[in-house]
Amino acid sequence: MHPLRTFVPLLALLGLGACQSDPPKAPLCRLPTGNDLAAAVSQAQSDLASGCASRYEDYFGALLRIGAGNPDPDNARRFSGFLEWSVDQGLINRRQAQTRYNRYFNVKYMTLGRQYNVCSDTCPRRPEVLAAMRRELGDKKLGLMDILGDRARYQRADRLYQETELVLEATCSACGAR
Amino acid sequence: MHPLHRPIPGQHPPRLPALACACLLAWSAAAGAAPAPTLRLFPTAVLEEIKQTGNVAQELESGLQPVIARLDQQQRLYLDSKCDGAEADAGCDQLARQLATTYLEMLQVMEVRLPEMEQAVNHTRKGLEKRLRRELGQKKTAWDLQETLLGKAGRRGATHKPRLRGRSGMRLSDRFRQYYNLVARPGQQGNGSLAVVAADIYLDMEEASELIARTREEISRATLMGELNQSMGVITPQMHQVVAGVKSILFGEAGDAPPADAAPARAAGSDRYLSPLQL
After folding, report:
1. What one-character-per-residue DSSP string does chain A give?
2. Alpha-carbon distance B162 to nearest alpha carbon in chain A (angstroms)
3. Mean pLDDT per 10-residue run, chain B (279 residues)?
4. A71: contact with B, CB 8 A cutoff
5. Rounded to an integer, what distance in angstroms lies between the CA atom of residue A102 and that of residue A122?
6. What is the value of ipTM here, to two decimals?
7. What is the dihedral of CA A90, A94, A99, A102, to 10 degrees?
8. What is the pLDDT of residue A3?
9. CA–CA dist A19, A32 (Å, integer)
10. pTM of this structure
């Protein structure tokens, strides 16, 4: 018998054996549950650092749901800490972290542009801008009221939307009436 | 060195009084933490126009109030007598003619007062239009606009709560008096409130302009038809619309409840967490 005839199957068996003894580890990405936001943040950080980064949005959503179940002003610190950690880990950039934090936990609307003036930039797409603000107001309700329990600031955000709508209506009418 | 203390290149060292002034200025600037530039939405000319429009509106109201009260009374009587759909009845026919006569009287009062009102409204509207376009439309981005609306108090969580349009439920003249009082006292209102008030007045003026145009059309139509109370027996939907418009603009909407004030904002103390990510 040719020596290769016995050697090749042996090698194949050895290789298979090696695969069986060291299988590739699939990351275990279990979204956090429960009511303890601090614990959920720790678990999310641990998972995201261990191969679950592609599910970043799902983890952030889970943290929002957990926060909403237990309103606390201190939750702002927890979310801020989590977002800053995410920046340090390279999961999101600083601007994305700021946008995300302020969208949920600040009265100001991130939807509103900062580059061009109201007449040239905002007025031509006023319905879209207002629709985006309404969506953001929904996120502010979740962040400010449900997660932080800060009713006053949510009401200010709501009023800011109404004031912006009114002032834009008048200003855009004035812009178009030259 | 504080940036405000940096010497301007080529300038001589300031003398003592000048230095004291500079220090005072620098200190006040630092203490005030870069005050927001004042919005020039209400220069004196615009203020005077607002005042004038309020006066003209009051005259119009005084002339119209008794006529509209009579119109309401006749309308109630017409409906209570179940005249709607019973025009053949002699009594109902008489009521309908009375209604039409009073309506014509209302149009006549308006015809006399309208040119002056129209002029006042248009001046105020044009003045504010220019200011809104320049100060808010061209000088500001949408982000600046929201910062203006929030003001310093807004950032802390407190709110000015200026009443928003369409909810005031008050007479036009009273509204103008209130507007004038709001904007004529510098320092009483933040820029945010001024922007809201300016928008409010401007949109009111647009609506008033439309009402004036509609009323003028209605007057022309009625005139063309000759003696209104001879040609029309009943109050028409167009007449209803004009009367409702006049009432809502001049006297405020009767069914309008004042806006539910937001719960008093909790004055955000120093204990509220401020994230380094916060804008």
Report:
1. --HHHHHHHHHHHHHHHHHHHSPPPPP--PPP-SS-HHHHHHHHHHHHTTT-GGGHHHHHHHHHHHHHTS--TTHHHHHHHHHHHHHHTTSS-HHHHHHHHHHHH-SS-TTS-SSSBIIIIIGGGHHHHHHHHHHHHHHHIIIIIIIT--HHHHHHHHHHHHHHHHHHHHHHHHHH--
2. 9
3. 37 39 38 58 87 87 89 89 80 85 83 86 91 95 94 52 53 76 65 84 85 76 58 63 73 45 40 82
4. no
5. 20
6. 0.82
7. 110
8. 52
9. 32
10. 0.70
Q: Could A155 and B262 be called an inter-chain contact, meaning their C-beta atoms sit closer than 8 Å?
A: yes
User: Among positive and negative, which fits the CA dihedral B190, B191, B196, B200?
Assistant: positive
Radius of gyration of chain A (CA): 26
* B199: nearest CB among A102, A122, A169: A169
Is the Cβ pair B203, A112 closer than 8 Å? no
CA angle A143, A145, A150 (to 5 degrees): 110
Residue B256 — φ and ψ, nearest 5°?
-80, 115
Q: Kindly state the tokens that stand for A135.
A: 């969506």
User: CA B149, CA B195: separation in Å to the nearest integer?
Assistant: 7
Per-residue tokens: A60: 């952030």
What confidence score (pLDDT) does residue B165 get? 56
Contact B141 A117 (CB under 8 A): yes
Q: Which amino acid is it at B248?
A: S
Q: For residue B245, give both structure tokens.
A: 């418009």
DSSP symbols for A117-153: BIIIIIGGGHHHHHHHHHHHHHHHIIIIIIIT--HHH
Note whether B248 and B210 are within 8 A (CB).
no
Integer CA distances (angstroms), A173 to A166, B116, B209, in order = 11, 24, 14
pLDDT at A39: 97
**Which among A170, A98, A128, A119 is positioned nearest to B144, based on CA atoms?**
A119
Torsion region of B58: left, alpha or beta (phi above 0 gives left; psi -120 to 50 gives alpha): alpha
Joined tokens for residue B108 = 């006549």
